[in-house]
Structure formats: structure tokens, C-alpha cells
Amino acid sequence: MIKMNAIILAGYSDKDDLLCELENVPKKAFIKLGSKIFIERQVEEFLKCDFIEKIYLAGMSKEEWDTDYPVVFAEVEGTIFDKAANVFRNYISKEEGYSEFSLVLSSDVPLIKSDMVQRFAEKCREESGGEIDGIFYYPIVKKETMLEKFPDVQRSWLKFVGIEFCGGDLLLVQPGKLLEHKKLIDDLGSQRKSTIGQLIVLDPILVLRYLFKRLSLERLLKFFNKKILKTEKGIFAPLMFDAEIAMDVDKPEHLEDARKYYEANRNLYE
């Protein structure tokens, strides 16, 4: 496995207000699951992966979390893309012999385990023909897989020809290459809660295919790679069976789902 870094997005957003107020914490990263806070669990799992070189906490200062874990506090701001890009530009790229690849994880995904990270990295390698050389790997989890582990979860599902799924919150990217497409990434990010909105950004023709249920995920990826990224080794969407990587905690009911799952599988997490 090639070496890569890990970037945990540990900032704060206004949409976090309700959860943070209910849990009496300044950021979602500090919400407790069992005996440990979210970010502590994530760091511990990344440290078990021998292919990860350094762990960067994007949007968090050393004063916020007094820890002995070997992490790099990266005080960057902006969108998800901006944070990952700025960590790469201001921290990673200044290291001698740095890796072009980074795993990016939101701090509100507390159920992730090191073996899931390993499986995702291996799946990315397989998807791109035996070597991780794509620009962006975005995991997807089928609706039935998600509901099998989290039967009460309320999610938005993406529907393409032959598949209904949600996206995972663990990404594998080349931040340096993504910088070449900053405006597009920003435009897509501004529409991240709207499938139609994102398709309009790419090409209105895609919207018609989607509305008439004639748009396949394979066709969308091929369009994105050929027309936007101008490469066959661009974006990949590996299918994962670890529903935990898509169990982000955005709302109180999501936290309830995560805690219920944790209690039922405590032996895996303690």
C-alpha cells in the first residue's frame, strides 16, 4: 500500500449548533461515544494503519484539545475543499518526500475502524487497476447495506439506474490535483445537498437523464472524467459494505442511531 496522510475535518459550522448545545460541547468532534470523544476514536484508528504517515486536524488548534497523540493541528478555515487543500498546501507539501494522497474524514463519523480504512484503501487500489493513481475516490454505500446496520436511519438517498445509495464520509484524494479544479469543486460543494443542483453545475443534459431515470452512475463518472477532469484516472466511486463510514452525525437522531449501534457492538469499540 502506498503511503498517505490523513486529514480530519475538525472545524465548526453553524449547522452544528443544535447538537453542540444538546451535548454541551464547542464542536462535534468533542461529543462522547462511550468513554471517548469522536476525534479521539478517529485518531486512534488512523494510528493503527501503517500506511498513514501523519494525521492532520483541520480547523482545530492545540489549545482546543490537550492530547499526547502524534497529530498536527492545522488551523485552516473555509469549505471542506478549502480545508483539505490548505492543509496540503500549507503543511503536507512542505514536508520532505511528502505523499500526494490524503484520506479525508469528517470529525462527526465516530464509528469508523482501522479495518474499514484499510478495506477502503484496498478497494480504491482495485478500482483504479491495481495502483492508487486517481484524483478523487468517493465511497458509496447501498441503501439496503445502510439499513441493515442502521434500520432507523433517516438519510437522503441518491438514485441512479440500478442503484440507490448514500455517500460515505471517508475520501481518498490528491489535493494538489483538485486545486486545478477549485472553482468547479466550490460550485459542486455549494450544491452538495442537492443532486439536481450538482448535475446542473456539470451539464443540464445530465439533469434530464436523471429526471427520466436514465442516468447511470457509470455514465456520470465517465462524463466527469472525460469532460471535466480530462483523464480516465479521475474520479472513482468504490462500492463499500462498511455502512459505518457513511454514518455521520448531523442531527440528534443520527447521534441516537450511532450510540445505539455502539452499545450493540461495544466489544468492537472498547
List the helices and strands and how they pair.
Layout: E1 4-9, H1 17-23, E2 32-33, E3 36-37, H2 38-47, E4 52-58, E5 71-74, H3 80-90, E6 102-106, H4 114-127, E7 136-137, E8 140-142, H5 143-149, E9 158-160, E10 163-167, E11 170-173, H6 175-178, H7 182-190, H8 195-202, H9 204-211, H10 217-229, E12 235-236, H11 252-264, H12 266-269
Parallel strand pairs: 1-4, 1-6, 4-5, 7-12
Antiparallel strand pairs: 2-3, 6-11, 7-11, 8-10, 9-10
Helix pairs in contact: 7-8, 8-9
Secondary structure tally: strands: 12
What is the radius of gyration? Answer: 18 Å
The CATH class assignment is Alpha Beta
Approximately what portion of the residues adopt beta-strand conformation? 15-25%
Q: Order of strands side by side in the largest beta sheet?
A: 5-4-1-6-11-7-12
Specify the structural class.
alpha/beta
Mean pLDDT: 92
Low-confidence stretches: none
How many strands, which pairing sense, and closed or not: the largest β-sheet?
Answer: 7 strands, mixed
CATH superfamily: Spore Coat Polysaccharide Biosynthesis Protein SpsA, Chain A
CATH architecture: Alpha-Beta Complex
Helical segment count: 12
Structure description:
- The chain is an alpha/beta fold and 270 residues long.
- It has 12 helices and 12 strands.
- It has helices at 17-23, 38-47, 80-90, 114-127, 143-149, 175-178, 182-190, 195-202, 204-211, 217-229, 252-264, 266-269; strands at residues 4-9, 32-33, 36-37, 52-58, 71-74, 102-106, 136-137, 140-142, 158-160, 163-167, 170-173, 235-236.
- A 7-stranded mixed sheet has the order 5-4-1-6-11-7-12, sandwiched between helices. A 3-stranded antiparallel sheet has the order 8-10-9. A two-stranded antiparallel ribbon has the order 2-3.
- β2 (32-33) and β3 (36-37) form a beta hairpin.
- α7 packs antiparallel against α8 and α8 (195-202) packs across α9.
